């Protein structure tokens, strides 16, 4: 059964001596707002971590398979849908992109039932074998750092080479040089929305929602790498509306969560910030839960 309430949420996470989301168009430097100097992490990066966590915890088994993942061939998943609904004959010959007819809705429903990320974030599945399009009930903004960040660049060496020819050119000194980019410390804020109206279309359930909160709370614990340094979820604040359409504007709720740097410190740890949470006089029909924090 699909969820029957609207939700808005605020996610706080930090990075220490790592690169939370490199920009491939800028030599993999940490993403930054050029005008304010504040760090950015894309919604795509955060969704990737949610997908990875769910895939790990649920073992990639229906109804928690992951549609968008490394080395996935999406049309093969579309073909599975047509075979599952007994319409495999529509896959034979012709222009597969336009085949399906009245079976597209059935195929789309099958994809929603089997793939967690389709019924959560949505997907465009109309390329190749046509399974239609899904607009997901869960959406995230870019995360933005509370304060401007400093993107540092470090020289690193590798005491090995790839080939004998390369070793000969270096005359026995097998050191090769490289670069590494880090943020000394940054506290980031992302905001998100959960639509019960769209959840009804994908059958996004309360169990799916609980798993999503779990993923946001724990996703960095299972995404370690030398490049990312230390990353952790520091706060997850969920506003629940009593109705499907909502009882207050999201932007007015988000202002109740205010992380602020303490006076006279150069931030290098979460303790250098204070997070104020205004729980008083919430709008009628809205409740606030701190899942983390």
Secondary structure elements and their pairing?
Elements: E1 7-18, E2 22-23, E3 29-30, E4 38-41, H1 43-58, H2 74-84, H3 104-114, H4 116-121, E5 122-124, E6 133-135, E7 138-140, E8 143-148, E9 152-159, H5 164-169, E10 175-194, H6 196-202, H7 206-218, E11 230-241, H8 250-254, E12 257-261, E13 273-277, E14 286-292
Antiparallel strand pairs: 1-10, 1-11, 2-3, 4-8, 5-6, 7-10, 8-10, 9-10, 11-14, 12-13
Helix pairs in contact: 1-7, 2-3
Describe this structure in words.
The protein is of the alpha+beta class and 293 residues long. The chain has helices at 43-58, 74-84, 104-114, 116-121, 164-169, 196-202, 206-218, 250-254; strands at residues 7-18, 22-23, 29-30, 38-41, 122-124, 133-135, 138-140, 143-148, 152-159, 175-194, 230-241, 257-261, 273-277, 286-292. The protein starts with 6 loop residues before the first strand and ends with a strand. It has two domains: 1-42 and 142-293, no CATH class; 45-135, no CATH class. α1 crosses α7. β2 (22-23) and β3 form a beta hairpin.
């Amino acid at each position: 059964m699909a969820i029957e309430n609207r939700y808005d949420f605020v996610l706080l996470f930090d990075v220490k001596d790592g690169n939370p989301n490199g920009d491939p168009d800028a030599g993999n430097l940490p993403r930054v707002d050029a005008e304010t100097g504040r760090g950015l992490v894309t919604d795509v990066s955060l969704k990737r971590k949610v997908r990875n966590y769910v895939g790990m915890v649920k073992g990639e088994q229906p109804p928690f398979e992951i549609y968008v993942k490394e080395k996935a061939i999406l049309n093969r998943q579309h073909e599975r849908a047509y075979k599952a609904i007994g319409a495999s004959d529509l896959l034979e010959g012709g222009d597969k992109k336009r085949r399906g007819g009245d079976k597209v809705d059935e195929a789309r429903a099958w994809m929603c039932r089997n793939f967690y990320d389709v019924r959560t974030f949505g997907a465009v599945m109309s390329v190749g074998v046509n399974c239609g399009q899904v607009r997901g009930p869960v959406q995230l903004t870019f995360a933005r750092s509370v304060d401007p960040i400093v993107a540092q660049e470090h020289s690193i060496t590798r005491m090995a080479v790839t080939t004998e020819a390369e070793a000969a050119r270096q005359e026995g000194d097998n050191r090769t040089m490289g670069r590494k980019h880090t943020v000394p410390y940054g506290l980031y804020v992302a905001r998100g929305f959960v639509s019960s109206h769209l959840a009804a279309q994908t059958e996004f359930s309360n169990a799916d929602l609980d798993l999503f909160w779990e993923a946001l709370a724990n996703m960095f614990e299972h995404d370690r790498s030398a490049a990312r340094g230390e990353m952790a979820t520091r706060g997850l604040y969920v506003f629940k509306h009593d109705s499907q359409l909502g009882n207050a504007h999201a932007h007015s709720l988000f202002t109740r969560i205010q992380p602020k740097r303490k006076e006279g410190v150069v931030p290098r740890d979460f303790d250098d910030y204070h997070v104020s949470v205004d729980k008083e006089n919430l709008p009628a029909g809205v409740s606030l839960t701190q899942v983390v924090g």
